[in-house]
Design a protein that fits this description.
Blueprint (H helix, E strand, L loop, with lengths): L1 E4 L2 H11 L12 H10 L1 E2 L2 E2 L7 E2 L1 H7 L4 E6 L2 E12 L3 H9 L7 H7 L4 E10 L12 H7 L7 E5 L5 H14 L2 E7 L9 H13 L6 E3 L2 E2 L6 H14 L4 E3 L15 H8 L1 H4 L2 E3 L5 E3 L4 E3 L13 E3 L2 H9 L11 H4 L11
Parallel strand pairs: 1-5, 8-9, 8-12, 9-10, 9-11, 12-13
Antiparallel strand pairs: 2-3, 4-7, 5-6, 6-7, 14-15, 14-16
Helix pairs in contact: 9-10
The structure holds zinc ion (ZN).
Length: about 350
């Protein structure tokens, strides 16, 4: 018997698959599913945009290749006993190109999660230690839906940020239009200059308290960014459907990275596949601060004849750059109740 220690990202994938967060995918993809998702975004005739795989490096490959059973551990806790059905290989280059395009070698998800993968495992569970399939930043769709008593209309909002004024504009737009909103931040950043998990959790919990009680709900999405642009935005929509959302907000350059994708390609892709996703997509233009109206708007200004000549864009990067320099965050970028929580130690720096 061989023991394998899995990392935090693998643990989150395992939890999410086990608890139906990635439904209709229930297990790590097998060879056929991996290829079908890459080429046709499909598993068993159902739409599925990104492969969720279990990868091993060359060292582990050599350790396990002649074994049938493995024990998986996370932080010294026994998680499960698995029986290997298949160990398969897919060239990293093929995966990179299919997901991120020709520039894939510079993509952070490729560098961290694909480049070093030597092989992929297809397995079945023989024993599960359910007591350890838990995490403080994880709530299952079943638990969450029970907690909020299954709202008929619930609009989902994804973020991996501390909420700024453009996020709040979107929250309020959604509460006004759909009544109930689920703010579900992705918890599990790994890139330098992103916010720490606990800062994202606390600030999003605080923003919920600013809205009418029993209309805004919080749940973490325990995962990690794949920066997969349109494909990942579609995965986010499926995840929210599984958490009980009827609608999902897809942002400007949703799940994007630098200039890998067009500004509105995630919105367009999700809108195009709305039926296959089975969740309504909310696709709005980017909100900004109009300097003559002194308000956040996204198309129509507050003053009738405002020509909207002077505007300021709102971005998380802008705010994090101010934080790094220990500068004050202006109110047009962030509500003071939130900015007062932040300092230069709120950001990942490794
Ligand atoms: Zn204006």
């Amino acid at each position: 018997m061989i023991n394998i220690n899995i990392n935090k990202e693998q643990f989150s994938d395992l939890l999410n698959l086990h608890h139906g967060v990635f439904y209709p995918l229930k297990n790590f993809v097998n060879h056929k599913q991996f290829k079908n998702i890459l080429t046709a975004q499909k598993i068993k005739k159902k739409f599925f945009p990104l492969p969720i795989f279990f990868a091993i490096d060359k060292i582990n490959f050599n350790r396990i290749k002649s074994h049938k059973y493995l024990k998986l551990f996370y932080r010294k806790n026994f998680l499960c006993l698995i029986k290997i059905k298949d160990i398969y290989q897919i060239e990293s280059k093929v995966i990179g190109e299919k997901i991120f395009g020709s520039n894939f070698k510079k993509h952070p998800y490729f560098i961290k999660h694909i480049k070093k993968n030597f092989a992929y495992l297809d397995f079945e569970y023989k024993k599960l230690n359910k007591q350890k399939l838990k995490h403080k930043n994880f709530i299952s769709p079943k638990e969450f839906k029970y907690k909020i008593k299954n709202k008929k209309i619930l609009a989902g909002f994804h973020t991996r940020n501390v909420p700024h004024t453009a996020h709040q504009w979107a929250h309020i737009y959604m509460i006004n239009k759909y009544k109930n909103i689920l703010i579900q931040p992705l918890i599990g950043q790994y890139k330098k200059n992103e916010y720490l998990d606990k800062v994202i959790v606390n600030s999003n919990k605080i923003v919920i308290k600013m809205y009418e009680k029993n209309k805004a709900f919080y749940a973490p999405y325990f995962s990690y960014p794949r920066y997969g642009g349109p494909l990942e935005a579609a995965l986010h929509a499926l995840v929210r459907k599984n958490y009980g959302c009827s609608h999902f907000w897809v942002g400007r350059d949703h799940a994007g990275f630098k200039n890998f994708y067009q500004k509105y390609s995630s919105q367009n892709f999700c809108k195009k596949n709305e039926k296959k996703l089975g969740i309504k997509i909310i696709a709005q233009r980017e909100p900004y601060f109009c300097l003559s109206c002194r308000k956040i708007v996204n198309k129509n200004c507050y003053k009738k004849n405002c020509k909207n000549l002077k505007k300021k864009m709102i971005s998380g990067t802008k705010i994090r750059n101010l934080l790094k320099k220990n500068k004050k965050i202006p109110e047009y970028l962030m509500h003071p109740n939130i900015s007062k929580l932040l300092n230069n130690k709120s950001i990942l720096n490794r």
